Amino acid sequence: MSEPTAETKSVMTLPREEVVSPLTGEPIVQYQGVTKTFGDLEVIKGIDLALYPGEKMALIGPSGSGKTTLGRMLMTLEEPTTGTILIDGEPLWQMKTSSGKLVRANEKHLRRMRQKIGMVFQHFNLFPHLSVLRNVTLAPMSVLGLSKEEAYQRAVEMLTKVGLQDKLGEYPSRLSGGQKQRVAIARALVMQPKVMVFDEVTSALDPELVGEVLEVIKEIAIDSDMAMMLITHEMDFARDIADRVIFGAEGRIVEQGSPEAIFEQPESERLQSFLKRFR
Amino acid sequence: MSVPWLDWLPLLGEGTLITIKIALLSIAVALCLSALAGLGSTSPIIIIRIASRTYIELFRACSLLVLLFWVYFALPFVGVELSKLWAGVLAIGLNIGAYGAEIVRSAIFAVPKGQYEASLALNLTPTERTWKIIIPQAVARMIPPMSNLLIELLKSTSLVYFITLSDLTYEAMIIRNNYYSYTPYIFALLLGIYFVLSSSISITMRILERKFTAWR
């Protein structure tokens, strides 16, 4: 890692150590000096960030700020260019050999680590060739090794939670966007991850369908002790359910704090002008 | 003048059976090769990818008739002697399989990337991702172009005439020698039989398509 430049320091109003999370204990996720470059484009320019067990963290910022890339690196869909991501203190993208050397993670290591992470995508990505029920039972049976009955029971429980218990036999093509996204939420929840990444889950929805999806997420946020990383453009939603809001721009964290602090007393000019667009 | 259809039936019947036999065997060979080389050209292992690409480029560029001659007339020189039937099946299978492999490959690449990402996020193994998520969706996309290709295959079986395998076309030519003045009828009948055969392929594929795309 190179030393942070003067510019980096000036935009990071609060270093990681000074942010007091509302939750205590060891962080479940830690980004340490993480950067990500696509070709010539540096999307993430050095991020230090911790997520605590049960914490609901909202990531806001203009498009191109790297929010989604942060989530995708956690889900092991993108590999950081430099830096480390720790999950429960263990490197996600590196593993220790028998001699104690850190090497690039293999698929086996990634699968073990991935078990703790879940993700809901902007474009739902339901499996179109499988029924709603099968979408939700597939991974519990294949990955967790549950029996058909156990998986069915868990799936129905989750689909009831998202209000779709009467759609078990439907194919995704027969559902509305909001219903699809709720199935996708049930499908991710059923794996009981410790951390769930919600990646702009309402951005692809018709405006009138946004509410039903946010409502479901809100209920889950209140009910569960799962940590959440909410990448979102819905400011009211972020304010409602987040314990902490991170504002990022151009691959850096510009400002972070409680929803009240971020939305009522934004310090940086970047954040002030960003928020103006949502008023 | 009445056309002696009935006199032709035994020969045409035998020829049709041979044509069906070559077609079915060639379809089996072509589909296997399509699947192997098509999947192979998406493999992360470079050797497999190179082998698949080499096969596809080589046999797609081959004239089927020349390939047929090569298999039947040239291979015996290196000690491989195949019956006419197997020479035909091998040549057609190799040639059509190379086209089919491209259909398989493009169908796999046409499955949206989000499907792969979602199956990875659910922590499915690489094998499960391929066989439970990607392939079933790719198969649905393969069927219409594959249907075209198999009809093409059926029609190209008539090339075995040139290695004197007594298929439908060959028998029709024999009949034509004996009933020269009926030539238009003979060839009309020949076309009719090929039409019926290719219709049965397209109907089968239509049924398969409906079955594999019930979710759409």
From TrEMBL, chain A:
Keyword Iron-sulfur included in the entry's annotation: no
GO molecular-function terms, A-Z: ABC-type amino acid transporter activity; ATP binding; ATP hydrolysis activity
Keywords, in A-Z order: Amino-acid transport, ATP-binding, Cell membrane, Membrane, Nucleotide-binding, Transport
Domain ABC transporter: 29-275
SMART domains given in the database record: AAA (SM00382)
Coiled coil residues, start to end: none
Annotated compartments: Cell membrane
Keyword Oxidoreductase (UniProt): no
Location, primary (coarse class): membrane
Family, as annotated: Belongs to the ABC transporter superfamily.
Name this protein carries in UniProt: Amino acid ABC transporter ATP-binding protein, PAAT family
Organism: Paenibacillus aquistagni
Lineage: Bacteria, Bacillati, Bacillota, Bacilli, Bacillales
TrEMBL record, chain B:
Main location as per UniProt: membrane
Signal peptide: none
Single GO MF annotation: transmembrane transporter activity
Membrane topology: Multi-pass membrane protein
Gene Ontology annotations of biological process type: amino acid transport
UniProt keyword terms in alphabetical order: Amino-acid transport, Cell membrane, Membrane, Transmembrane, Transmembrane helix, Transport
One CC-aspect GO term: ATP-binding cassette (ABC) transporter complex
Domain ABC transmembrane type-1 residues, every copy: 16-198
PROSITE patterns the UniProt entry points to: ABC_TM1
Subcellular localization: Cell membrane
Highest taxon of the lineage: Bacteria
Alphabetical list of Pfam families matching this protein: BPD_transp_1
Segments crossing the lipid bilayer: 20-46, 58-79, 85-104, 185-208
Family according to the record: Belongs to the binding-protein-dependent transport system permease family.
NCBIfam families named in the record: ectoine_ehuC, HEQRo_perm_3TM
Name the UniProt record assigns to this protein: Amino acid ABC transporter membrane protein 1, PAAT family
